[in-house]
Amino acid sequence: MNDPIRGEARGTAPVPLSVLDLATVGEGFTATDALKASVELAGLAERKGFTRYWVAEHHSMPGVASSSPAVILAHLAAHTERVRLGSGGVMLPNHAPLVIAEQFGTLEALAPGRVDLGLGRAPGTDGATAAALRRTERLREGAEDFPQQLAELTRFLDDDFPDGHRYARIHAVPGKVQGEKQGRPPIWLLGSSGFSAQLAGQLGLPFAFAHHFSAANTIPALELYRETFRPSSVLDAPYALIGASALAAEDEKEARRQVLTGALSMLRLRTGRPGLVPTPEEAEAYPFSSAEREFVESWLANVTYGTPSAVREGLDALVKRTGADELMLTAQAHSPSARVRSYELISEAYDL
């Protein structure tokens, strides 16, 4: 099997290509439709040579059906055989570290050697929902405790709390306590600012940056990661993946119609009106104010969309500009078929 961290570039892609799935739900569709499309898309990713297939944790968002990454990943593990599966990511402050160690130990038992554990410190939702998840109003404290939570989770995964520690006799099962044949998922740190970039560098862990919604911070965060990187038992050199929003269609007009639905969905989310992803017709007819139009165009400036060749050209330029070691593509579109077709067209453009 390939190195679990460093993917292998396929076809004519300059770096390995992977998939980030938000399991988006469009108007007229259901969560069942979205998750069926995820199974179809994971199978496509495996057949076409994408390196990883990650799902993201979001809460209280009607248009996103990926609130439970571990559940979705277990389902995808049953429908795939080779593609790496992982979280992009699990929001660690929302959960007890032991629970995550048990969930991903179970996933590792179900799909040995092909599970990634990507971790973030943001809530993946609004403050009220985060408080409901964590049963506390002290949300800032949860983010500040992230390094400690990460260290605890790592100890549970490795089953190596020192003698005398209060958790020394507690074991994450399934996990390493059952023998070396039970491996453990590699940890990735996710971020959209410099905090996780620096922490990943100091710990010698692979780093995944959310370029798809924090593009202005991409290069500074990657530079910080590389500057602070210390070789570890995991990596001897930095490894940076970036999430990129990309959508391909047979023609540019159709691609624009599809990505506009995602932009309007994001506008509604940012203004406290989350809902299902609107149809292309609704997005085209929406009466944008000048401020809303400015937001949408700014958002779309960070989306690579168009014909397959145009998307390839844009993604290649992004790799060159950032020096990313891997691209993880996310496609926001109204219909499940448009999402799946986009990845198919991109794979053909790169001859994966």
Automatic annotation (TrEMBL):
Organism, as annotated: Streptomyces albiaxialis
InterPro entries in alphabetical order: Bact_Lucif_Oxidored (IPR050766), CmoO-like (IPR019949), Luciferase-like_dom (IPR011251), Luciferase-like_sf (IPR036661)
Name assigned to this protein: LLM class flavin-dependent oxidoreductase
Family that this chain belongs to: To bacterial alkanal monooxygenase alpha and beta chains.
Domain of life (superkingdom): Bacteria
Domain Luciferase-like: 19-325
Matching Gene3D superfamilies: Luciferase-like domain
